[in-house]
Structures are given as structure tokens and as C-alpha cells.
Amino acid sequence: MRRTLRCPTSSWPIPSSRRPLPPIYVSGPLLRLRSRYYDALLAVQIRDDWGPWVELLCQAVIEACEAARHLARDLVAIVAHWRVQKGLRTNSTAWRLA
């Protein structure tokens, strides 16, 4: 039986309210930390102890931000390489789309 990660918050993915940035998806890090996540969630539900859950969520957000930053850097490098490789004119449609 497959279990779904439950979270006592209502904002998934975590939105950025100050700038129009893409959302941060924390499901990957939380899945990797699944047993610790369920232990922390149980502590919230039984003892109203939010500390471990908040720390775990903060760790997941940090990991998700680092992954998004690395992905963005890789995408920028791919676009730069593609532009150099193709030798496109700077006023061409393909250049503007890249």
C-alpha cells in the first residue's frame, strides 16, 4: 500500500509572495527523509511538538532551493551553449526563443 505524505500546512508548493518566482517543490527531499518525516509528524499529532517537523521542513526547503538553483544554472549553461553552437544572429527569432 502506498502512503501519501501528509502535512499540517495548506500551501504546497510553497509560494513566493514577494517576487514572481517559480514554486519550490519540497516533495523530493521529504520523500528521501520519509521515516524522519513521519516520526516528526507523529510528534506533532500526539505531543503537539512542532520543533522536529519545522526543522525537517526547513531542511527540505533548503534542499529544494539548492536543487532548483543547480537546475537553473544548468539550463542557463545549455542555452548559452546552444546559442554558441548554432551561431544564431542576435536579431533572429530562434535567438530570442533560446
Q: How many domains would you count in the coordinates?
A: 1
Outline, from the CA principal axes? rod-shaped
Radius of gyration: 20 Å
Strand content: under 5%
**Share of helical residues:** 55-70%
The largest pleated sheet is described as: none
Summed up, the helix count is: 4
Q: Which stretches of 5+ consecutive residues score pLDDT under 50?
A: none
Mean pLDDT: 79
> Order of SSEs, N→C?
HHHH
The helix/strand class is mainly alpha
Q: How many beta-strand segments?
A: 0
Amino-to-carboxy terminus distance:
44 Å
Give a nutshell description of this structure.
With 98 residues, this protein is an all-alpha fold. It has helices at 27-32, 34-47, 51-86, 93-97.
